[in-house]
User: Fold these one by one.
Assistant:
Number 1:
Amino acid sequence: MSTLPPPPAARWLPPGTFSGQVALVTGGGTGMGLEISRGLAALGARVIVASRSAEHHAPLLAEAAERGWLVEPRTLYVRLAGDVEKLALELDEHGGSDILVNNAAGNFVCPAERLSARAWRSVLGSVLDGTFYCTRYFGRGMIARGRGQVLNVVATYAWTGMAGVVHSASAKAGVLAMTRTLAVEWARHGLRVNAIAPGPFQSEGAANNLWPEEGRKRRIEERRERAPAEQSSAPSTSSSGSCRLRTRHCICDASQQRSRRGAHLAESRNRGSPRHSRRLVARVTPWRRDESSHATGEKEET
Ligand code: HXC
């Protein structure tokens, strides 16, 4: 077993939190997706890393070999419904996936009046269509098995909007609506659907497309160094047994909430969990209702 320190996303939960579970992470080989994959793998999940480009898998596969993690690569372009369905059917033949993280996205800054129809479709296709296709096809197996969870990566501008990214803000707002809708619609099948809205996360793709200026890049990098665990651990924390009754929630990046007091601050409180949704979940998941261990990272029996 590796003696290397665990990655940031795995520091707040007990080892083995996801043992025996299969997690599929779209865009899971680079940027924040890579940190999510590392966190889940370090906590015992078998991670299917699904990126559009096979070369994106290489760093995670190399680390997995060194640390003894279970990671399998699959090339997947989430915009292609047929490819998503094919992979879902393939996985279903071998027990399917327990956790789906819809992380794959594309984004760039472009004034709306200059955004071409192709550019709009490109971002909507990856973010909104891709999230739906994955949720629909991987979710079908989860429904059949009566368990599973979907975690969607959105952004705080899904609530507030943001100048220069009308395509991404519109797509992320759609994904947020999808999260809320399916959390209720699929609660009766025992599925949970949540979202996270992390703040800016320094990665090559994001830096090139979103904050090419050196000053901004440095500020984001510094910010990430201050709080890497908070930012990248939200997916694993939200997917863990300690939050197993949580559905229709969105965990927002705290600094973004402070800097933009408004709609999403209110949203991140309890409104994301309406009583009827909770009731549905409670009916189909007869576990002890106790989310207090979320803060301490204790593992509950399942
Ligand atoms: C203007 C652009 C552009 C840019 C592409 N286009 N990049 N327009 N500014 N920077 C236009 C092209 O000109 C073209 O339109 C259309 O978009 C499609 O371009 P393609 O390159 O063919 O598209 P595609 O291969 O689908 O590429 C998608 C992509 C790419 C989004 C453009 O960069 C990508 O996949 N990036 C993934 C990495 C990434 O973006 N990560 C950041 C995600 S962060 P025309 O009409 O000219 O043919 C994130 C959350 C941020 O999403 C949260 C912050 C708080």
Note: Strands lie at 22-26, 46-51, 70-75, 99-102, 148-153, 191-197, 250-252.
Number 2:
Amino acid sequence: MIYRAIIPAAGYGIRNLPVTKSIPKEMFPIGGRPTIEYIVEEAILAGITEILIILSRNKNEIMNYFDRSIELECFLTARGKEHLIPTITPPKVSIQYTRQHEALGLGHAVLMGKSFAGNEPFAVLLPDQVSLQRKSMLIPLIKTYDTYSTNVIGLQHVEPALLKNYGVVAAQRLKNRVFDIESIVEKPKKDPPSNLAIMGRYVLRPEVFEVLKDIAPGQGGEIQLTDALSELCSTSGMLGYAYKERWYDTSIEQDYLKIQKQAYLMKLHNKH
Ligand code: UTP
């Protein structure tokens, strides 16, 4: 049973400057709601009851968003607009926050959750990877963990020309969508080992913290989660679950436009 999740949201969002100088990319709106709200909902739908969001100094808007706003509730009540109150009510889940003082990399951000996770397996959800499914995309990863009791990461089939942007796995199919991962190549310039790329969903065993603690800075001088996962492939084992659903990366402008359109169409459809 996995009931804790870490959402790392402390990066600078360099690809989306200048807006990310003051607006965290996790707060970019999709269908009128911030991206991170979809991620929190996805976690809740999968049975997560405790969430840790990793923040940095300029990300207080995220904390404010998930807090109650009594004055706004009073204002809406006074104006006869109580029906809007549920839309501003915080989600029913425990959310804690911790600050990563320096953006030393995704691996380092996950390491900040060591005492939160304790000695239990936990989920990691990257808030810039979104899939507007009505079901939680974390569920198949948790089910795979429940069956095999080992680390599981989300995978997506990516067209060959784009593989150079991802962590790509060498893997053998175990069963249906489940793959046994032998190794991971980060952003392969040529000869990718497959067309299966790592997506931003993970269920990890606490051993990952021991590896992260000692990992040296890798690509871009950052402590990379992928480097720790690579090491785990040959020690505790690593499975992948290959999604067939479409994912969107809100850091990529084209993807962000597409997800906006999809959310708008879904909203329109729900109205009829
Ligand atoms: P990204 O690789 O997308 O980094 O991190 P980023 O800073 O958000 O964006 P770019 O690459 O500079 O444009 C994936 C996730 O990991 C978090 C980010 O906030 C994002 O949600 N992250 C990254 C951290 O929490 N801390 C870090 O040091 C790095």
Note: DSSP finds ten helices and 13 strands in the chain.
